[in-house]
Amino acid sequence: MTTALLASALLLFASHAVPSWPGVRPALVARLGRPGFAALHSVGSLVTLALFVFAYAEAGGGMPLFVPADWAPPLVAALMPLVFLLLAARVTTRFGEPAAPNPPRGIYRITRFPGSVGLLLWALLHLQATGDGRRVVLFVTMAAIALFAMAKNDWLLRRSAEGRAFRAETSILPFAAILAGRQRLALAEIGWARPFGGLAAYAAMLAVHPLLFGVDPLWWLG
Length: 222
Prior knowledge:
The protein is mainly alpha-helical. The protein folds into two domains: 1-60; 64-221, no CATH class. It has helices at residues 3-17, 24-58, 72-92, 107-110, 114-128, 133-157, 161-169, 176-179, 187-190, 193-213; strands spanning 96-97, 100-101. Strands 1-2 form a two-stranded antiparallel ribbon. The protein is globular, with a radius of gyration of 19 Å. 27% of the residues are buried. This is NnrU domain-containing protein. It comes from Azospirillum thermophilum.
């Protein structure tokens, strides 16, 4: 683990947190316009991501911090399809704006923030299945980005009547609102295409994971 890796991780987090900080985004949109803000945000995110990837590669294997439990890799393989389903459903289901969210539908009946919950689950699963310093930095950074996004968006929801109504009908913890009777499970709204797409993306990731990251997620099968 190097100072460059830690610094690039902080920059990566800041590239997501600062532009979306309450008050900062509206000011930038007012000055740059929505296309200008989107371009600035995209470029900043890509540059900081590239710096992180470079620092990650230069850090080498990293110092071992702990030894993962034997059950950790199978748990990751078993639960990652859920991550891909959450992400696929988030991308293909409209949320609206934090100040005026659409009525809960599909995946939003299950969890208020499916994208962030998916990213957090991905980070936590991989964090307990690895042990070297540089990957711990990677997954802690991703978890921090997900937690910040949930906290920020939840704060924004509280600021409008529509947002407060959305919060009252949903939960961050998956299925909590359904179990509490504040929401109902409507699988028909999710459909078959989203789970199929999530599983297809998961299968593709299993195939390319050894090439991209040098680790076979199913190595424990022997």
